[in-house]
Design brief:
Elements (H helix, E strand, L loop, with lengths): L2 H24 L10 H16 L13 H11 L7 H22 L12 H32 L8 H4 L4 H16 L1 H10 L4 H8 L3 H6 L1 H12 L6 H4 L3 H4 L2 H8 L1
Helix pairs in contact: 1-5, 2-4, 3-4, 4-5, 7-8, 7-11
Length: 254
Amino acid sequence: MRKGQVLEMEQENMNELVGNSIRSYKSGDKDALNDVYDHLVHFCLRVISKTRGKYINANDEEAAIVPNVILDALDKYDPEQGSFMCYLGQAIRNRTIDGLRREKRNPAARPISLDPDFFQTCNESEYFEDMIDDMARRHELETYDKLLASFNLSINTLSEIAPRRPSTREQARRAAWVIAQDGEASTYLLNKGMLPHKILEQRFHITRSILERYRKFIIAVVLVYVYDLSYIKPYVTPAFMEESPWYEQEAMHA
């Protein structure tokens, strides 16, 4: 039996153990995690290391988020969402990315320490991380397709409804971002299935022509933000998020 097959069998056994432990924990057995907690921590450290592109151990500052993220994931996890490890992997990666964004706004000199043994360890477990990543992406796409279907939309038609001109596409993305960030606007859309024209035109000065012509595309992008679809977000994030505080300026002037 090849080494990869052995690792895969060991990982399947661990996944089963984790699954059983999580079910017991959710049923009230607070000691159920004793046998798997170290595994969960090690997994989180691997995800943080991969996300940051440098080795992170349990004593590093970046690892301080791990206990809280694990407890938060345990509290919010629903078995219907799929694998717990998949859910935990997304949670720790999202929290790590949030930290990177804060560091970008407040840069500080941080030496990068590399453990020479890390790359070998990382390579041995790479198949599992890729599997988790692929599972999460597939699950998210399935979720997104169901959300789109509730608005009579489909993933397969997104390329057809998207604006062709980059500048127009950016305006439509901005409109979607505004709706997602505004409680009244997003509630109106989700409850009535229509864009809140009056709010967007009067409060955020978005032109009616953009809203009417690209209604389907805007709705599709709003769903990505409202339901926090982290794998799809990078493809629809407006440029103003990186370049200027456009949304904050518009909200202040509203």
